[in-house]
Amino acid sequence: MENSEASRSVKTSKLILTNAILILALALIPAFVERTDVITWLTFTLLYITLSQSWNIIGGFAGQQNLGHAAFFGIGALSARFLWLAGLPLPLALLIGAAAAALFALIIGFPAFRLRGVYFVIGTLVLAEILKTVFDTVLPRASVLPSRLLNVYSLTPRYYLSLVIAIAAVGVVFWISRSRLGLGFMSVREDEDAAEASGVSTQKYKLLALLISTSMAGLAGGVFGYFASAAQPGSLFSAVWTFDAVIIVFVGGVGTVLGPIIGSCFFVLLQQVLSLYLPMGMHILVFGILFIIVVLFLPGGLIGLMSRFKRAGSVKQLSKRSRRRSWCLFFQKRGGSWESF
User: I need a surface site. Which of 5, 54, 202, 233 has the fewest CB within 10 A?
Assistant: First the structure.
């Protein structure tokens, strides 16, 4: 028992130390990297970590395949951007944007969760498309930063904001994965009827998952609203934001903490490489094919693939030890020694 607790304590200490070193390294990057394209790439990676982690809560842990995630991203982005440009402090604008996304989720959550399966998927997708059409009509002009802000525009504060929000998002998902709340989400995901029969309030857990997920998506939208020098309001509700998050989660590992992190790094890097060699927009086709391959042949994503290699290595090592022990016993029975072999 004591050995088990000591081993767990050592693992926890190593995890904390590794994360602290990684965060410190990320925090020091702007001080040593002057290339704006690298900082932009890293900022988008951190933004996608937040967005994909937000979808991971509702789609990965709670099992509700929400294809209208872009609606909450867009609400957070528009709210935070307009409030910030109106003179509100940025942190307060971001929080209000996240709250606006969660409030909208609460309003549509009750009727939306009356739908199940493919009907829920289609319903949420249609919702986002309706909002995109509305904002394209009502706000046809792009929102451009005023000259006073463009003159002092810098990527560094936007990078650090993306880093802080991404760390917070990963921390929330890590806590959910080890909490009773997370167990409630997963019970709904595995078998909603069985969970309901066991006394679990599935409606409550689905609403909680939706509220946490959408508020996080609203924060990600707010970060993008602060990052973009110009933004077309309707494009903030584009289905691309939803499908990017879904692809990242499935490629990285759905329902895991590390999956969206690995998936985001892989996604942004591959997107940049493909954009150099393929015509504009063709990288979407490549990601679509990649998504189909992962769903069919690698349902655990990159995290699942890494686990397979790890298990294979453990089995190989165990087999090697077993053979060594067998040879040892063989020589002992014949009065020899293993060392002389």
Answer: 5
Residue 316 is predicted with a pLDDT of: 58
- Chain length of the chain: 341
Query: What would the 3-class secondary structure string for 217-239 be?
Result: HHHHHHHHHHHCCEECHHHHHCH
**128-134 long-range contacts, CB within 8 A, separation 24+:** 128/67, 128/68, 128/69, 128/70, 128/71, 128/74, 128/237, 128/239, 128/242, 129/237, 129/239, 131/71, 131/74, 131/75, 131/237, 132/70, 132/74, 132/234, 132/237, 132/238, 132/239, 133/234
Q: How do residues 246-273 score in pLDDT, each as one tens digit?
A: 999 999 999 999 999 999 999 998 888 8
Which tens digit of pLDDT belongs to each residue from 44-79?
999 999 999 999 999 999 999 899 999 999 999 999
**335: left (phi > 0), else alpha (psi -120 to 50), else beta?**
left
Looking at the DSSP assignment, which residues form a beta bridge with residue 165? none
Percent of the chain at pLDDT > 90 equals 52
Asked if residues 161 and 226 have their Cβ atoms less than 8 Å apart, the reply is yes
Which of 8-12, 128-132, 213-217 shows the lowest mean pLDDT across its residues?
8-12
Asked if 210 and 42 count as a contact pair (C-beta separation under 8 A), the reply is no
The stretches of 179-258 forming alpha helices (DSSP H) are 180-190, 192-197, 202-227, 239-252
Secondary structure (3-state) at 298 = coil
89 φ/ψ angles, rounded to the nearest 5 degrees: -55, 140
Share of the chain above pLDDT 70, in %: 87
Q: Are 89 and 108 in contact (CB under 8 A)?
A: no
- Burial readout 191-223 (b: 16 or more C-beta within 10 A, e: otherwise): ebeebeeeebebeebbbbbbbbbbbbbbbbbbb
Tell me the domains of the chain and their CATH numbers.
12-299 (1.10.3470)
Residue type present at position 320: K
Coil, strand, or helix at residue 68? coil
Contact 192, 198 (CB under 8 A): no
